[in-house]
Amino acid sequence: MPSQINTWGAAKGSLLGGFGAGILCTGIYFIGQAAGASYVPRDPAALGSEVLAPYMPLVISVSAAVVAFVVLALLARFAREKAWPVFLGISLLVFLLEAVLSILTFGDLATIITLEIMHVPVALGIILGIHRFGIQKLGPSES
Q1: Predicted local distance difference test score (pLDDT) of residue 142
Q2: Are 129 and 9 in contact, with CB atoms under 8 Å apart?
Q3: What is the share, in percent, of the chain residues with pLDDT greater than 90?
Q4: What's phi and psi for 142, nearest 5 deg?
Q5: For residue 47, with 0-12 CB atoms within 10 Å meaning exposed, 13-18 middle and 19 or more buried, which class applies?
Q6: Which domain holds residue 117?
Q7: What is the tens place of the pLDDT at every residue in 31-80?
Q8: Would 96 be classed as within a structural domain?
Q9: What DSSP letter does each residue of the chain carry, written as one string?
Q10: Beta bridge partners of residue 5, listed in sequence order
Q11: Is 130 within the bounds of a domain?
């Protein structure tokens, strides 16, 4: 069934999902820290910090939400019929890339596992938020 993208609804859903996931991930950060995650990168100069700060899950989640919305808005503008499926494909690729980057960037297993867990609510929050507020299914007579 074809769908139409409500741009303002998608922005709202993306930001709500990203912000909510960021709050959840901040909690996961502290749980991971209690479980032994150091959040120290293998190469601090490459990350620009000696340690991943506690506010970074929120900042990264909201940033991901903004980028996701911009990508979806561009797809809606230039690939109207296929915007949502293409967006989901791009989201899956980015999710997998981020999983690999966490493994390559950090050295201790507790940090890697915690960061991998954090990726799930961010991806789900943004995608489900956009779907809830920004994707409208078209009936047979509307397509």
Answers
A1: 52
A2: no
A3: 84
A4: -95, -15
A5: middle
A6: 3-137
A7: 999 999 999 999 988 878 899 999 999 999 999 999 999 999 999 999 88
A8: yes
A9: --EEE-HHHHHHHHHHHHHHHHHHHHHHHHHHHHTT----BSSHHHHTSSS--TTHHHHHHHHHHHHHHHHHHHHHHH-GGGHHHHHHHHHHHHHHHHHHHHHHHB-SHHHHHHHHHHHHHHHHHHHHHHHHHHEEEPPTTT-
A10: 135
A11: yes
Q: What is the pLDDT of residues 3-13, one digit of tens each?
A: 789 999 999 99
The residue to which tokens 């990508």 are assigned: 71
How much is the pTM?
A: 0.91
Cβ atoms within 10 Å of 69's Cβ, excluding its own: 22
Longest pairwise C-alpha distance within the chain: 57
Strand partners, 137: 3
How many domains is the chain partitioned into structurally?
1
In a domain, 143, yes or no: no
Question: Is 142 contained in some domain?
Answer: no
How many residues are there in the chain? 143
Which residue's structure tokens are 């690939």?
Answer: 79
**Residues 118 and 54 sit within 8 Å (Cβ to Cβ):** no
